[in-house]
Amino acid sequence: MNSNSITSPTAQRCYHCDEKIPKGCQFHLEILGESRSLCCAGCEAVAKIIIDNNLTDYYQYRTQSAEKSALVPPNIKALRLYDHQEIQDDFVSDNEQQHKEISLSVDGVSCAACAWLIEKQLKKQTGVITIEVNITTHRALLVWDDERVKLSHLLIIIHQLGYKAAPFEIDVQEQHYQQTMRQYLYKLGVAGIATMQVMMFSVALYFNFFNEQNDNIRDYLRWVSLFIATPVLLYSALPFYRNAWLNIKTLTLGMDVPVSIALLFSYIASLYATMTEQGDVFFESISMFTFFLLLGRFLEMRARRHAATMSANLLKLIPAMATLASGEQIAAKTLKKSDVVTILPGEYFPADGIIIQGSTTINESMLTGESIAVRRTENDTVFAGTINGDGNITVKVTHNRKDALISRIVRLQDHALYSKPKIALVADNVARYFVGAILLIALSTWLYWNVYRPQDALWITVAVLVATCPCALSLATPTAITCSTAMLGRLGLLVRRGHVLETLCKVNHILLDKTGTLTEGNIQLVKTKLFDQYSTSEVLMYAAELERYANHPLAKTFSLYQASTILFDKVNNVIGHGLSGTINQQQWRIGKYGFVTNNLSPVNCPISNKYHDDFSIWLSCNNRIIAAFKIEDPIRKDSRRLINTFKQQGIKVTMLTGDGSVHAQRVAQQLNIDHLQTNMTPVSKLDYLKKMPSTDISLMIGDGVNDAPILAGAHLSIALSSGTDIAKSSADIVLLGDKLFSIIAARKLALRTRHIIYQNLAWALGYNLIILPLAITGLVAPYIAVIGMSASSIIVVSNSLRLLK
């Protein structure tokens, strides 16, 4: 039954659900060419979604009105399911600002114009914090305020633009990629076979083998060529039309607009020439153009996927199944906190957790880049995706899959990929305006040649449209950034910010913490000096009980001497100075000399200066010195190599340390560090940073709580994975292993990436500037233009892939 039989436009019933329209309601919408009355804002919203998604056939052919419980068509209803918390638990995470964050797989994104369109439309929506689209990975990072806008609403907007978006899943993405590649192969096969067939007929037409008596044969070959070329135009070239239509519908200019215009104009002109038996035909150009363009896209997709999936493939290291302690096997992704699993030798760990029984060696190379297995025993932390070595162990799960370290690494790498450096934004804008310029130049070319040589006007215009398509320009930067970010992961560097590669190239002043950064952080207590009646065991116990409340490598030195019960009340941790606590109305302090003596004069605290040279940690009771501790911390093996390499590159090196002892000066001398700042508090470190010349681009490397302010304030910062959580959350990069020289490798990679981006841009722009005048003057045949344009894109992608070596 036709929809008009359900209700008439003038009836006081809702056109959508057929319920009575309350008095005073003024909801109207044009449906099937007429203004329809609706009963509420909900029906109006759903009807608009149906119209915007080109689903008006629903109204034309429905047999009954919609029920309130089933207002939304199935494909829109599926998107609404993503608003359920149970479903979001698998895909959505909370960022540092407590906003919702999700990685989306976006189908149909082919160029910078597509990414720009999605970003532009979503940024207009209330509640959207950020949206970044990566055309290399075909993924988007969406951050939104769940209280102001629902996820389904944003997904519907993306669908309205003509793209398909869904939460990113590596397995689904793999299936989609394989399906897309099969479709491309089918289209490529049709275009290839057609090209070979049409070219055979075209040879005879090119060399004018037919005289006037053989015109019938010539016309016959043209009709056969038309028959063969039509499937190419209607089937093989569909991806170009689809993208072009999306661009035109949303008033943007993408790369497929000039391509589609060239194909359609060539076909229409050839069809007209065939039917009227006048003029030239371009069926071989249409087939060859489509074949080479598809071939270029096919190879380009394979190369881009190779770069894009390196970080995402980390998720594949998590096994599909896990074995509970009871022996039951379940899906690894369903593991929850406090579940207990067993892992046999050679198996991958299915989740992050703590070993509660057994000991083993673990290969953590996928996290740290270090191939040597590390020993882990009870109460040690293990991570999903690492490989169990030689022990049968039992592990208590501490994080679900979404919050596992390997998942966080992938999310942080995604952040870096989605953040576009300035040079990428410039290239995207140039590519977008360049398409408009191409269309104007092509129109001018056609008008000129149509006056002076009309028989050649069409193919010259086609050559201009095809040869100058800015595919390579749009790919120049994102492919290089994707490859280099993947390589940083191989080096054991977790990138948390998008500006890392750009800033690494500009760094000219390195700031370094000492303890735990240049040194191993494996601090050893080598000497204890007593100044009062307390015994050595007593002062060590008091020191350990105070240091219990600190999270610093120094604190771990005293952990062996902790008492069985907590002694101190109201312990206060003064970052950069020390700790103080109260017991039996006595105030004990541990830390720097000035702190433990409350900055009293030397007369009131008569300690010989010779002790200040050897002892850096002091213990006092009611401002009276009780004991002093001498500590040693071995220098890391590659610290000297790191410093020397930086200095050879002309980079200034400064060590900032809270240590005021001779040990700090000794470390600086051994490492050949010229600039040393001692007794630095977190505030004084940040003040030092602020007072640096504006020409200095700083890189801070640290690991402690006292480094957090300067890590956040520096132009670029690196925290060691062994450092505190606050230091790692403040840094732009986290060094997962303990190889400091990976930082040098990262800088070398950044410089190489910048060089390759410049090469890509130079090639893309240079090629277009050279080919454009040749195409305008008619010196480039259409098939040469196709080959040149496809080769240009492949060269840019292949050049970027060199970063993976």
Q: Helix fraction?
A: 40-55%
Strand content: 15-25%
What best-fitting shape do the alpha-carbon axes yield?
elongated
Structural class: alpha+beta
The largest sheet has its strands arranged as 17-29-28-27-18-25-26
Total domain units: 6
Low-pLDDT stretches: 1-11
- The number of helical runs is 30
Quick structural gist:
This protein is of the alpha+beta class. It has 30 helices and 29 strands. The chain has six domains: 3-72, no CATH class; 82-168, Alpha-Beta Plaits, CATH 3.30.70.100; 175-311 and 415-480 and 787-795, no CATH class; 334-398, Calcium-transporting ATPase, cytoplasmic transduction domain A, CATH 2.70.150; 493-519 and 635-738, Rossmann fold; 524-632, Calcium-transporting ATPase, cytoplasmic domain N.
Descriptive account of the structure:
This protein is of the alpha+beta class. Helix content is 48%, strand content 17%. A 7-stranded mixed beta sheet has the order 17-29-28-27-18-25-26. A 6-stranded antiparallel beta sheet has the order 9-8-10-16-11-14, with no helix packed on it. The two termini are 65 Å apart. Its EC number is 7.2.2.9. It is found in: Cell membrane. The chain crosses the membrane at residues 184-208, 220-241, 253-275, 281-299, 430-451, 457-481, 756-776, 782-804.
Keywords:
805 residues; alpha+beta; 6 domains; seven-stranded mixed β-sheet; six-stranded antiparallel β-sheet; elongated; disordered N terminus
How does the SSE layout of this entry go?
Elements: E1 27-31, E2 34-38, H1 41-52, H2 57-61, H3 74-80, H4 85-91, E3 93-94, E4 100-107, H5 112-123, E5 128-134, E6 139-144, H6 151-160, E7 164-167, H7 170-206, H8 215-236, H9 238-249, H10 256-276, H11 283-312, E8 321-324, E9 329-331, E10 340-343, E11 353-357, E12 360-363, H12 365-368, E13 374-376, E14 381-382, E15 387-388, E16 393-397, H13 405-418, H14 422-452, H15 454-467, H16 471-475, H17 478-490, E17 493-495, H18 500-504, E18 509-512, H19 514-518, E19 524-530, H20 536-547, H21 553-557, E20 569-574, E21 578-583, E22 586-591, H22 593-596, H23 609-614, E23 617-621, E24 624-632, H24 639-648, E25 652-656, H25 662-670, E26 675-677, H26 682-691, E27 698-702, H27 708-713, E28 716-720, H28 725-730, E29 733-735, H29 741-776, H30 782-801
Parallel strand pairs: 18-25, 18-27, 25-26, 27-28, 28-29
Antiparallel strand pairs: 1-2, 3-4, 4-6, 4-7, 5-6, 8-9, 8-10, 10-16, 11-14, 11-16, 12-13, 12-15, 17-29, 19-24, 20-21, 21-22, 22-23, 23-24
Helix pairs in contact: 7-8, 7-11, 8-10, 8-11, 9-10, 10-11, 10-15, 11-17, 11-30, 14-15, 15-29, 15-30, 17-29, 17-30, 29-30
